[in-house]
Amino acid sequence: MTAVANDETYAGKEITGIRIGFPYGNTDRVIIHTKTDNYIIYTSIGNLQNKITNFIKEK
Questions:
Q1: What is the mean pLDDT of each run of 10 residues along the chain (59 residues)?
Q2: Residue 49 contacts residue 6 (beta carbons within 8 Å)
Q3: Fewest CB within a 10 Å sphere: which of 18, 35, 37, 50?
Q4: Long-range contacts of range 39-48, CB-CB < 8 Å, 24 or more positions apart?
Q5: Is the pTM of this model over 0.85?
Q6: Measured in Å, how far apart are the chain's first and last C-alpha atoms?
Q7: Are 49 and 7 in contact (CB under 8 A)?
Q8: What local confidence, expressed as pLDDT, does residue 35 receive?
Q9: Which domain holds residue 20?
């Protein structure tokens, strides 16, 4: 993982991103950038970006 960020747009800014989950009614859209791909995670789990960032820092 090279970066983790929130995305406030409905479908995600990343056109070529791999989408995980459904955008319907979910509050958070988290973008994970890797060396090869971008992932858009649709989730109702609050504060997911911070949880992923903390996990990366612990490793």
A1: 84 78 79 92 88 88
A2: yes
A3: 35
A4: 40/7, 40/12, 40/14
A5: no
A6: 12
A7: no
A8: 93
A9: 3-58
